[in-house]
Each structure stands twice: as structure tokens, then as C-alpha cells.
Amino acid sequence: MGHIRGMKLGLIVTAIGLAGIASMVLARATNPIESAMLFNEVLKHIRDDYVDEVDLDKLMTGAIRGMLNTLDPHSQYLTPKQYEDLMVSTHGSFGGLGIEIDIRNGWLTVIAPIEGTPAYRAGIRGGDRIVKIEGRSTRGITMTEAVQKLRGPKGTKVTITIQREGEPELIDYTITRDIIKIKSVPFSTMIDGDIGYVRIAAFSDDTADELREALAKLRNQGMKKLIIDLRRNTGGLLSQAIEVSEQFVKPGQVIVSTKGRRREQNRIYRAGPRAKGGDYPLVVLVDNQSASASEIVAGAIQDLDRGLVVGLSTFGKGTVQSVMRLSGGGALKLTTAKYYTPSGRNINKDEEGSEESAIIRSDVSDSNHVYYTIGGRKVYGGGGIKPDIKIEPEEMPKIASRLAREGLIFEYAVHYVATHKDVGPDFGEDPGLITDFKSFIKDKEFEFTDAEFEDGKDFLLIMLRSEIARKIWGDEAAYEISIEGDSQLQKVIDIMEKANTLSDLFALAATYSDESQKN
What is the pTM of this model? Predict the structure, then answer.
């Protein structure tokens, strides 16, 4: 009896610990103690009366997630494994082999080795099938299982068995794991003489340093204008968004501010004394997947009139998540504040509250509400960052989309590299390439019409050349080719070629309708 009483007390204490989150969820309860008692009562009935015996740990995890689901999409309970993955994504390093992998046709397949890593040095190639790990078949393996088997402490070894097209026998590789750094600035280059281009893929620990290095390289190559590509960049560390912005704005300028319920969440972040400033033409290219830290950088560049934002309206994920470690190794990722641009725009794209939501939105901003940049240009609220110049991407032909989805672009690149031993940089000029590819997909019983293939031919050729170049020379070579077929980027380049100064750039933007900002 004493044991049961102790268990009840423990459940009540646990529930009270959760009540700080749950008090808004259990709207009919008048205070946290009543909420905890109600929670405990329901839990007791499930434990004692449910038709099957239940796992209390799973119940508690479900209860926590249920509470968080009433808040917003970004407040989450993280299991110990999910917390570890979050740390990898934000800190950008882990012990492993250095390969990008996917499941293709039921087999674990190497998409590409990361340059300079153990897998790259060992000679692993894109398209290699990993058919065994430590002698055990990978047939039917999940991505989660594969990552767990391939990652490990630096200095430990793992043996993988490779099946490679063109090789009659399986090949065993025993590779020593090392710390793998994930580059958040994977590519930079000069375009058309004096235009620099930098791709920022994420905001992790080393983003600002990687950007600094890329900009120094481009300046040495004669850069006078710059395009920062933040498309598909879903964000990352606030500190890195600030450090990236500092490389373009003046010391003391406001980059972003945060506002929350607790006083310590209300903060203004200014550029520090090492901020570089600059007045050369600058464009930040964004799309509807650019979020969080990407929106902070874009909003600061726009509001401080340091450059133009071009592309599509960004995602509108302008909230601060605080990560709180919990007992048992998990963590609580809880939204604690919202981001605001220097002009005062709320970056977050809020939704109206409902009866099911514990938080009723009281600050849903008007998409037509006008704010002003430091120089007096109009910008608009409504969540997300609206571009100064709206540029839609060219729609991928359906045949190209289908071929990519079914992995046939990738498969052909693997086949091409296996059957062409001495490929030169002019391989893409071979008219037989696209003809050979057409025969290849026919042999794979891919259904299409000649008219469909003709319509998508130019797009397909860029995709093929890029994927083949990746297999032979690496990601940078693939990026160089993909730029040629990037219609959105090509239109930005056209704009940049007309602007010799920042004033020229703003004058060009003024020729576009206000609708670019409103949409």
C-alpha cells in the first residue's frame, strides 16, 4: 500500500513539474495544482483500468508531446537521439566516414563522398552500393540504422562492402572514422568578371568564419559586387546570423531584436566593432524555404539599405527556441520569443488562434502594413521577408522531375563514369550524351513521349552534366554547371550587371512595382 501511495505521490510531483507547460493546455483548470491533479487522475485511470498494460514512459512522452502540439510547430520534446542529432546539425561535426547516403532501390547507396574525408581518401565513389556493414547485409536497412552503424568515435574502424558498377566482384573497405565537418558555405565563385557568388546552406558554428574565408578569396579575384544565396537555407544559430550580417553592416547598427514574455528575452542585437560595413552592390537571394537565421540576415540587409532582397517571400519562421535539457537525456525545445527586423517587422508568420490552441495570437500582423528602411524605402509586414524584386524560379519540366524522383539522373551518371574512363571538362559538348541518355531511360522502361523529352532536353542536359561532374570532380564542379541552368540566379546576374553602385541597385529596384514587396 505504501508503495502505491509513493507511486501516486511521484506521479503528482512529475505532473506538477510539467504543469508550467500544461497550465495553458488544460484551459478549464484554474491553477497549476488543479491541472496537475487532473493530469494525475487521468494517468491513474489509464494505468489501472485500460484494457492492456501500458508503458508509463510512453504515456508521459505522449502527454508531453500532446501539450506541446497545442503551442506552435517549433516547440518540441526531443528524445536523447533527437537531441544528439540537433547538436550535430547546429555544431556541424560528428565522427564518421564522410559520405552522403540515401536508400535507392532498397539498398544503401553513396550519393557522394565529402571531399577530404576518410571515405573520399579511401576511394569511395558516388553510386557505390553499400551492401554490407561489418559483414551484415544492408538490404532493407533504414537511414536511421545506417547512420548509427556508420558513425562512431574518431579513430574507430568500420568495414563496408561495396558493389560498384563495372566491377565484377564486391570490394571491402576498412575505413578509420574521423571528425567530419559539415560545410555551411559549400561553394563560392566569380561570375561574369566582377560578380561574386556565395552559397550559404546553413547557419552552424563555423558559418561566419567560412563566409569570411570565401569573401577574402573572392576579393582577391576582383569581386566588386556580391550575391549571397540563402535559398533552401532553413536557418540555424542566431549568433551566426548576427556574425554573418556583421560582415556587411556598420558597427552599432541593429541587426535583430527579440521579444518574449520574460524580461530577459527582450534583447536588441547590434553589430559589434568588427562589423565591416561596405557599399558595394549586394543582393540576397531567398525563396519560400529560407527561414529563421536566413530571414534575420535578409531582413537586416533590407532594412539597413545595405542591399536588395530578391526572389520569393521567405518562410516566416521568426521565433526563438530555447533548448532545455531534461532528466533522462532528452530536451525541451520551447519557443520563448519572436524575432523583429531593424524596422520593427515581426518575422514570424503567425496564424490566428483557435479553440484547440493554448496560445491565442494577439499580434497577427497586416501584410499591407508599411514599414520603412533606414533610407526611407517601403517594406511590408505580414511575416517573412518580402523581396524587393520578386523573381519566380523556372518550373522544372515534368519529365525532369520524374527522372530525378526515380533516381535515373543519378543512375545514368554512375553508368557514364563507369563506362567513360577519361572524361574531360568538355564532355557536356558531346551531342551523343543526351541521345545516349534517352536510350538508357528507354532500357529502364521509363515511359515518356518524344515531345516530352524534347521539351525537357535543355534542362535534362544541365542536370546530367552537373551529376556527372559531381561524380568525377566533386560538388564544386557540379555547382559551377548548375549555375548555368538556374534561371532565378541568371536573372539576378542580369540585374547585377546593370548596377555599378549600390545606388544603381536601388534605382533598379524602384522600377519594379510595390507588388514585389506585398506578395
Answer: 0.78
